């Protein structure tokens, strides 16, 4: 990808909404060179794709926006992975990979972790409550979700910061243009994360517990038998994908939710006065500025979508963020309004690939807003600071969120 195309990709990722509007109003589908994909932007079309996984495969869901250099790929070759994970699998294999995650994130498991999540959220707010100023992203949003998903998986709390950092580096490596030296450094940190996960897999296989990590391992390996190298590769890839989805998406959602509430002070004040509106505020924030803007799909045969004929092997970006602002489904779609009557949105997907961790994410948002509205009702965006969105369609959020009170 040349430098000019990199620049256009960066612009699109930081503010994709004008592109979505053009694509929704165009006849048929729009091909976007920066994404090397057909953009599916209308709510009805997105839902049609997600209803037909046999025609629109998830095999390319995590295809890099920017292919790493050969030297970085060589470093990654010394790590673990290479197997399909739940978001890139189809059919029976997808159901097989998804089943232990669904069990591990059951309503009972989520309920069991909520006291810890609430306690941890309060501890994090304690660290800055008396300071009068904070970057919410680094001090809170980037920390709570990793701690919570780590607790559910059964990770050693001392390992969680390194695993969260490795997840960020994996995202940068695959979705951001980096100089070759930086790609190599990122690849080395991803491999270090994978080795931590491999050690966890081997330890937990030898000593099963009541946690999601054990659920995943038991679905792949028979207890009291030695793990094969192939099983270790499969499990590390599975855990890496689960952890990245489990913390980066929720981190992003915390950031965008607080950002938009504070950009609309009357809505923040309303929420402080009427905290029973918190669930509706979460749904509106998820709809208005979706953390996971979209996933890729690839056609398995020639198909026609929105009047556009596509050959087998055509790449598409299924834009949840565009569908969630489709005026055909949502009134005043570009307005942020926590008092609107919620209409079912696509922020957590739809169909067989619906996010199994959506309830856990919502609960962490609820806890966060309860903490902030009750303890820091005077919260506001710091004057003179510009909020810049991260250049990604995978976990859209502010790079920093400077707040005062």
TrEMBL record:
UniProt cross-references to Gene3D superfamilies, sorted A to Z: Cytochrome P450
Signal peptide limits: none
Keywords: Heme, Iron, Metal-binding, Monooxygenase, Oxidoreductase
Keyword Oxidoreductase: yes
InterPro entries referenced in this protein's UniProt entry, alphabetically: Cyt_P450 (IPR001128), Cyt_P450_B (IPR002397), Cyt_P450_CS (IPR017972), Cyt_P450_sf (IPR036396)
Keyword Oxidoreductase: yes
Similarity section: Belongs to the cytochrome P450 family.
Protein name (database record): Cytochrome P450 hydroxylase
Source organism per UniProt: Streptomyces graminofaciens
